[in-house]
C-alpha cells in the first residue's frame, strides 16, 4: 500500500547540508504531516519530492516507479501534484477560469484540434467544467465562481489553490503550508475538506505545516524533522510525546 517512498535523500547547498539521509514512506489514503522548527529541512525535502530540487543522493519512488530524475510536470502527469505556500492563482482571471486552466491534457491545446473544434475537445471542455463546478461547490467557492481571483481573501485563495490542484486528479497531493495566512474559520473549513478528501475520495496527502495543532488534528502519521534529518516519526500522540522533538522546538539539546 506504499504510494510514495523517500530513500536516503540528501541535498547540500555549498557547504550547507539542508537534507541529510531522509527516508520515509507514505501509505495510500493517509495524511502525513511534516513538522519541525525553522531550518529543519522541511521546505527542501518538499521540493525534492516535487521535483523542484534534484537530490545529491537518494531516490524518490512513486507508485512503484523511480521518479528521482523526472521534472515537476512529469510527476504531475503521474498523479503527484503540489500546491504552493503563496497561492499561484491568476489574479486577473475569474475563479472558474482559474479552475479550467488547471485541467490536464486538454486536446484543445493542440493547434489542429482547437482549430477544428473537434468533438473530443468539446467533450473534454464539458467534462472539465462539470469537474470544476463539482469542486467549487465542494470547497464552498461556487458563489464566487465569477469573481476575479485577485479579489479573494487569503483563505479563499488557499481553497482555490486546493481546487486547482484537484483539477489534475492527483493520487498524492503535496500541500505546502496550506494554513499560512488563513483565518481560523477558513482554517477549519480547509482542514475539513482535506479530511473529507481522504475519507470520501481515498486521496493521499503529505502536508508541510508550521501549525502543529492543525497537523495533529488531521494526520495519520507525523514526521518530525530537525537539522535536515528525520528526528521522530509515528502517530500524532507518539510524536507529541517525543522529548527530542520538544527539545528541538524549545532550542535544547537533541
Automatic annotation (TrEMBL):
Keywords: Amino-acid transport, ATP-binding, Nucleotide-binding, Transport. Signal peptide: none annotated. GO terms for biological process: amino acid transport. One of its GO terms (molecular function) is ATP binding. The keyword ATP-binding applies. CDD domains: ABC_Mj1267_LivG_branched. Belongs to the ABC transporter superfamily. Probable component of a branched-chain amino-acid transport system. This is Probable branched-chain amino acid transport ATP-binding protein LivG.
Amino acid at each position: 500500500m506504499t504510494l510514495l517512498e523517500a530513500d536516503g535523500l540528501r541535498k547540500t547547498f555549498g557547504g550547507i547540508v539542508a537534507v541529510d539521509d531522509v527516508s520515509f514512506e507514505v501509505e495510500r489514503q493517509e495524511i502525513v504531516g511534516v513538522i519541525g522548527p525553522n531550518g529543519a529541512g522541511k521546505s527542501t525535502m518538499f521540493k525534492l519530492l516535487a521535483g523542484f530540487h534534484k537530490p545529491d543522493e537518494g531516490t524518490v519512488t512513486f507508485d512503484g516507479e523511480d521518479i528521482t530524475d523526472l521534472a515537476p510536470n512529469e510527476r504531475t502527469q503521474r498523479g503527484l501534484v503540489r500546491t504552493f505556500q503563496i497561492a499561484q492563482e491568476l489574479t486577473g482571471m475569474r475563479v472558474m477560469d482559474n479552475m479550467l486552466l488547471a485541467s490536464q491534457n486538454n486536446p484543445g491545446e493542440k493547434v489542429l484540434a482547437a482549430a477544428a473544434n473537434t468533438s473530443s475537445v468539446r467533450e473534454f471542455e464539458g467534462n472539465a467544467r462539470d469537474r470544476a463546478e463539482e469542486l467549487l461547490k465542494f470547497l464552498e467557492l461556487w458563489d464566487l465562481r465569477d469573481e476575479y481571483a485577485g479579489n479573494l481573501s487569503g483563505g479563499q485563495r488557499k481553497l482555490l489553490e486546493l481546487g486547482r490542484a484537484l483539477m489534475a486528479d492527483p493520487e498524492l497531493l503535496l500541500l505546502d503550508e496550506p494554513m499560512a495566512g488563513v483565518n481560523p474559520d477558513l482554517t477549519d473549513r480547509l482542514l475539513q475538506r482535506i479530511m473529507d478528501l481522504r475519507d470520501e475520495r481515498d486521496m493521499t496527502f503529505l502536508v508541510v505545516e508550521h501549525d502543529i495543532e492543525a497537523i495533529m488534528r488531521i494526520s495519520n502519521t507525523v514526521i518530525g524533522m530537525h537539522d535536515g534529518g528525520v528526528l521522530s516519526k509515528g502517530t500524532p500522540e507518539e510524536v507529541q510525546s517525543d522529548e527530542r522533538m520538544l527539545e528541538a522546538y524549545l532550542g535544547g539539546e537533541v
